[in-house]
Design goal:
Layout lengths: L8 E6 L14 E2 L2 E2 H12 L3 E6 L2 H9 L3 E4 L7 H12 L7 E4 L9 H6 L11 E7 L3 H5 L5 E8 L2 E8 L11 E10 H10 L3 H6 L4 H5 L4 E6 L9 H14 L2
Parallel strand pairs: 1-4, 1-6, 4-5, 7-11
Antiparallel strand pairs: 2-3, 6-10, 7-10, 8-9, 8-10, 9-11
């Protein structure tokens, strides 16, 4: 189903060239195209709004432009993807045409278009400031892994939570599901502008989780439950997996 707000929706894909574990990550070849181009293709397949890539290097800019996608240059020194997409938004849309901003990480080349669409669904509720995604955790080791962020939320339906907290700890306590947070966000424009103006919060710095800034400021984050975690490419092994996944889809 096409997004009825597509004319007011901008999908922003931040891409930072520097990467300790996988140098030159946005330009890594996957199926004959740079990874950042594959992410842009997935976003275009979602047919949810205009797609714009925000980069910090001329070589990445040129690769995206040559593939036919819109791209904007941003500063190298941004501390987070949200800061980068905000700069890109102001550059590309100074007049405020777009009301909804979807932040798709630039290292998700195999993400399903349906997953991108799912991140927009909570925006049907006018009081939601930010929407994001989560997956039910089944692996016991994952429940204890501090690198897997958990979202604690109050159930609104079988497919949605209202976020109360995000943590690296194993939480909440007791019987019941635990949810793995997926860092893909849809913002109302005014929420993104407020968010980047706030600056880091106490709990954000303690947990090293940027989304806590919004909760501490009283902003509402709703979470759509999806079926699987998209593969984030951070290492050479992840890159091999992504290549295999896209190769299997083209068969």
């Amino acid at each position: 189903m096409r997004n009825p707000e597509s004319d007011k929706t901008l999908v922003l894909i931040p891409a930072r060239l520097a990467s300790t574990r996988l140098p030159g990550k946005p330009l890594a070849d996957i199926g004959g195209a740079p990874m950042i181009v594959q992410v842009a293709r997935r976003a275009k397949e979602a047919d949810i709004g205009r797609v714009l890539v925000a980069v910090d290097d001329q070589s990445v800019f040129d690769a995206v432009r040559s593939a036919g996608f819109d791209v904007v240059m941003t500063r190298v020194d941004h501390q987070s993807g949200s800061d980068r997409i905000h700069e890109a938004l102001l550059s590309a849309d100074p007049d405020g045409r777009f009301d909804y901003i979807i932040n798709v990480q630039g290292d998700l080349p195999t993400i399903e278009p349906e997953t991108i669409l799912a991140s927009f669904r909570p925006m049907q509720e006018p009081s939601v400031d930010i929407a994001t995604l989560a997956v039910d955790i089944h692996d016991e080791d994952d429940k204890k892994n501090p690198n897997i962020v958990k979202v604690i939320g109050s159930p609104l339906s079988a497919e949605r939570l209202r976020a109360l907290y995000f943590t690296r700890a194993t939480a909440p306590y007791g019987e019941g599901p635990l949810y793995h947070h997926i860092g893909l966000y849809t913002y109302r424009r005014r929420a993104l502008e407020r968010f980047v103006a706030l600056g880091p919060s106490v709990l954000e710095l303690r947990e090293r989780l940027e989304q806590l800034r919004a909760l501490e400021a009283g902003m509402r984050i709703d979470v759509e439950i999806v079926d699987s975690v998209p593969l984030g490419v951070d290492t050479p092994a992840d890159l091999d997996k992504a290549r295999a996944i896209l190769a299997s889809r083209s068969l």
